[in-house]
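Please, structure for the following, as tokens.
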Amino acid sequence: MKDSAGLTQNRPQIFADYLAMTSLVRIDQQLLSSLSQRARQHSRRRLNHNFHEPPDVFNRMLNAIEPDSYICPHRHQHPPLEESFLVLRGAGAVIVFADTGELEDILVLDSRRQCWGVEIPAERYHTILSRAVGSVFYEVKQGPYDPQRAKEFAPWAPLEGTPEALAHLQRLHRWVDQAQQM
């Protein structure tokens, strides 16, 4: 199985143990902590744990994201796909943009507050930020997963790994800070 960067992911023994014990897959603190710890060690500062295989009709995954992880604004247009996020631990923010890059909406997700999830309409540019160390989200979108068509990156946003990406990430965090003060 390959992650979004095309790197092979091996499920650690802890995940194999879950599958061997029962047909149920537990989503518990042990799983979230293990995934978060591995995300903090990953160069992208985030890591998925997929419950699906690439050809599955529904993609279901845990997404551990650290606050210093930059996810380039993108949309799912070909084919148009909705995407849902639920915060299981920590906090995050979903930011939605107009096609021109103008800010349209910010929704803060916090496992300790009143808003835990969001469904993002198809064809809308968006990004998700982690707002707390150890944040883990449950993500669902329609499959099958095709890495060549999964995302269309916003032409007005810096790509991940570029020198401009860090400054853009900091700007996004400031926007969320300002939105929370309103």
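The longest strand covers residues 58-65. Residues 13-181 form a domain with the Jelly Rolls fold (CATH 2.60.120.10).
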